[in-house]
Specification:
- The protein is an alpha/beta fold and 216 residues long.
- It has one domain: Rossmann fold (3-Layer(aba) Sandwich), CATH 3.40.50.300.
- Helix content is 39%, strand content 19%.
- It contains eight helices and seven strands, in the order αβαβαβαββααβαβα.
- It has helices at 6-26, 42-53, 70-77, 95-102, 146-149, 151-156, 175-185, 202-215, and strands at 30-36, 59-65, 81-86, 112-116, 133-139, 159-163, 191-193.
- Strands 3-2-4-1-5-6-7 form a seven-stranded parallel beta sheet, sandwiched between helices.
- Helix 1 (6-26) runs parallel beside helix 4 and helix 2 (42-53) crosses helix 8.
- The longest helix has 21 residues, at 6-26.
- The protein is globular, with a radius of gyration of 17 Å.
- The protein starts with 5 loop residues before the first helix and ends with a helix.
């Protein structure tokens, strides 16, 4: 006899995620769930994305971390609303956490919510947060073989952001091998090479996201 403890948890999570999705749709809010490893440059990418989109869209950020509010404070310092979620050890966000964060936001004033999920390439993939789309960030220092080691997150993401491309000369990163592996796992996902801290490539990523928001 096998007892599956995970499925009831996911079922409960998914029911609430569906409620959140309906709530977002009612208020015409697009929700991006960003997945990545710690140190990949999630917050830097979010800051650069906000800078590129803020003239057209009203944006808020939900920050997921095991502890601290360091990243949320960076977002607020840029003039963007941010809600911090500390999971206290959990390696992913869940829809119940998102609901509590959303309850303190004025959805009627927002066009886009960016969720910065907890840094992890495994756990967050399984949990629906009511998002409009999932995207992931991989940084050059992490290595070009990550799609082979963590296929699930690449398959679940509708776009892949390759960050820190300005560091490529310093690392043995085979970009062609990386892109081939991504396309084998997810042929429809565009790959956006960027350097969030310098702004290189951010425009193409931001415009793609903006078009998705406009079409929603």
């Amino acid at each position: 006899m096998q007892i599956d403890l995970k499925q009831p948890i996911l079922d409960k999570n998914d029911r609430l995620a569906d409620e959140l999705r309906a709530r977002f749709a009612e208020n015409h809010v697009f929700v991006l769930d960003l997945l990545a490893s710690p140190g990949s440059g999630k917050t830097s990418t979010i800051l650069a994305t906000i800078e590129a989109l803020r003239d057209e869209f009203n944006i808020a950020v939900i920050e997921g971390d095991i502890a601290s509010s360091v990243d949320a404070e960076k977002i607020k310092a840029q003039g963007t609303a941010a809600v911090q979620i500390n999971t206290g050890g959990a390696c992913h966000l869940e829809s119940a956490m998102i609901k509590r964060a959303v309850d303190v936001l004025d959805l009627e004033r927002l066009d886009l919510i960016i969720i910065e999920n907890v840094g992890n390439l495994v756990c967050p993939t399984d949990f629906d947060l009511g998002e409009s789309l999932k995207a992931m960030i991989l940084s050059v220092p992490e290595g070009h073989d990550k799609p082979l080691k963590y296929p699930g997150v690449f398959q679940a993401s509708e776009a892949v952001v390759l960050n820190k491309v300005d560091t490529m000369p310093m690392f043995n990163f085979d970009r062609e091998a990386f892109e081939d592996a991504v396309r084998q796992l997810n042929p429809s996902a565009p790959i956006f090479p960027i350097a969030a801290t310098t702004g290189e490539g951010v425009g193409a990523w931001a415009e793609w996201l903006a078009e998705r928001i406009r079409q929603a």
